[in-house]
Amino acid sequence: MAVNLKQLAELLGLSQTTVSRALNGYPEVNAETRRRVLDAVRTTGYRPNRAAQRLATGKAYSIGLVMPIASGIDSDIHFGEFLAGLAEEALKHDFHFVLNPSAPDDEEATFRRLAASGNVDAVFLAYMRQNDPRIPILKSLSIPFVVHGRSMGGPRDYPFLDVDNTRAFYDAAKLLLQLGHRRIALINGPEHLAFSVRRKKGLMRALEEWGLRLDEALVHHSEMTDEYGYRSMQSFLERPGPPTALLCASTVLALGAVRAINQAGLVIGRDISVIAHDDVLPMLRPENFSVPLTTTRSSLRAAGARIATRLIAGILNLGDYPQQELWRAELIVRASTGSAPER
Amino acid sequence: MAVNLKQLAELLGLSQTTVSRALNGYPEVNAETRRRVLDAVRTTGYRPNRAAQRLATGKAYSIGLVMPIASGIDSDIHFGEFLAGLAEEALKHDFHFVLNPSAPDDEEATFRRLAASGNVDAVFLAYMRQNDPRIPILKSLSIPFVVHGRSMGGPRDYPFLDVDNTRAFYDAAKLLLQLGHRRIALINGPEHLAFSVRRKKGLMRALEEWGLRLDEALVHHSEMTDEYGYRSMQSFLERPGPPTALLCASTVLALGAVRAINQAGLVIGRDISVIAHDDVLPMLRPENFSVPLTTTRSSLRAAGARIATRLIAGILNLGDYPQQELWRAELIVRASTGSAPER
């Protein structure tokens, strides 16, 4: 016994267009009207008929994602957190996702098929590599997209949202240098990903300002697991000139690194300083480490929500958003950083 | 210049039906023929035309998922791991997923819309609650489904894959009792979820066999985060009769619990024993804890792959699989368990 749009509009004494605009989040509908419409939706159980809307508008009300998968590829906890942000925003506009698994070497073809399927109105692209071949492909397809991250090399003429990773690790390294540290190690993300390259660049830039050079033996690239963090730190500590400070590309890596430091009998914040990048994963908070971690912080979930907002605004013509956004990470000092130990 | 099915079949000297069956994984095609077909697919770049197949067969080649989301709901790392398993198997059959975000109180309606949309051939259901209202709804919709987990109460006449959680925590508790422990604490998952109820039941059953009763003050329910694990363990240790052993519903909870134990100056495996459930999350392995953790182990990724196999086999008529599966978790003993301390 649900009402339709016409009946809902009559009930409210509003035009169908106004009700429809209120429901689709158009900014020109004032807050009071929107509240009345939403109240009426709740009491009447009105639900827009997506199938009818799809026929009428030619829109799928859907965003496409490609998920690289192979038996050797681990699931990525960061993906789930980002997806939660996307989903939170998609829910507000009754959008869904089409998730296409793809072999890593077949991603370009998967994007082409997704765009051609008519099942999605826009696609989303992440895990940017250097000179990423997927960007020219997406530009050639007639479908809107937003990139999470940025490629390196090639023209930067596409819509993106990225964290300023160079700046984040420049800021972090600068703090360590100001505290007197000179041997700074880096446990980074996978080497082929653009954010890893940029974070390393940030460290190098800060070292250069101090007249120092990066010691490549103090840089490891790896997947974001506890185990790699542990192994990397252990091998750094076994070297003749061990580092007095560590930059970590994620709190998950920091977990393992902290364990290696503890096992070596060193005190974090006194014998060795640690700064990690914090994506604000709910399962692992830097403030809850035994020695609370100094971090560069930028919420992955907020990034997901923002990208969904921009994609959906583009599809439904809900207003203009900046096409390129570079977020600055916050540097939050906690107990894991201190003056360099005297040697 | 890609070949079509007819050309591919001619090239191989096989019928189109045989080639098609080989590609769709039918068991009656022998291994050698399958290998020849797959080699030819690689060299010719043949790709089945999904849009045409969809028209011809009326299938969407898609599995529907509902993702509960709200601004207060944390992303769940376990979901990502399960999805990786689903995706690994879906990729083999060129299936994709339709992921519908839903407010938690609107899940039933979301399933109805998903089934009615024609966008999916089957749906998947998880996070089972007691007397779960979604099961009768799914049974009433004319769409195949598999449940990950089992509800409690009501008839058990639906397809499911579950881990025997009662058995897993019964086995774990029994080992602790054999080691002389009598005060066993439990940091469990959310109270409304069926797996939490069953794990608690397993503990109670083992205690009863020893003529003991569960002390409700030693049971906490919470989300699966490091922080909750830490807080729960800390509060247990502050009690007048602290536990000498702990069961943890996940390795993530164990992370926080271990930290609280270390901070209290207790030695794991000597002063207090710990057993955690291990979903085999790649980012956090129990064998890499400072004191390697004894666990009840069952791979979430393997469960995801198995559910995808069963759903896809049902959709494409690829053969029969059991409709109800109860997997037994392995109890793997490592250094975190030892004899109860003398008091």
Overall CATH architecture of the domain at 5-48 in chain A: Orthogonal Bundle
- Amount of helix of chain A: 40-55%
Radius of gyration of chain A: 24 Å
Number of contiguous helices of chain A:
12
Structural class of chain A: alpha/beta
The CATH homologous superfamily of the domain at 5-48 in chain A is named: lambda repressor-like DNA-binding domains
In the CATH scheme, the class of the domain at 5-48 in chain A would be Mainly Alpha
Quaternary structure type: homodimer
Instruction: Please trace the helix and strand order of chain A, writing H or E for each element.
Output: HHHHEHEHEHEEHEHEHEHEEHEE
Number of beta-strand segments of chain A = 12
Beta-strand proportion of chain A: 15-25%
CATH topology of the domain at 5-48 in chain A: 434 Repressor (Amino-terminal Domain)
Low-confidence stretches of chain A: none
Pfam family, one (chains A, B): LacI
Domain HTH lacI-type (chains A, B): 3-57
Protein name (chains A, B): Transcriptional regulator AglR, LacI family
InterPro entries (chains A, B): HTH_LacI (IPR000843), LacI/GalR-like_sensor (IPR046335), Lambda_DNA-bd_dom_sf (IPR010982), Peripla_BP_I (IPR028082)
What does this entry look like structurally?
- The structure is a homodimer of 343-residue chains.
- Chain A is 42% helix and 16% strand.
- In chain A, strands 2-1-3-4-5-11 form a six-stranded parallel beta sheet, with helices on both faces.
- Chain A has a domain at 5-48: Orthogonal Bundle (434 Repressor (Amino-terminal Domain)), CATH 1.10.260.
- Chain A is an alpha/beta fold and 343 residues long.
- Chain A contains twelve helices and twelve strands.
- In chain A, strand 6, helix 9 and strand 7 form a beta-alpha-beta unit.
- The longest helix of chain A is centred in the C-terminal third of the chain and has 17 residues, at 300-316.
- Chain A starts with a helix and ends in an 11-residue tail after the last strand.
- Chain A has helices at 5-12, 16-23, 31-44, 50-57, 77-92, 107-116, 134-140, 165-178, 194-209, 226-237, 251-263, 300-316; strands at residues 62-68, 96-102, 122-125, 145-148, 160-163, 184-188, 219-221, 245-248, 273-278, 294-297, 324-327, 330-332.
- At the A-B interface, helix 5, strand 2, helix 6, helix 10 and helix 11 of A face helix 5, strand 2, helix 6, helix 10 and helix 11 of B.
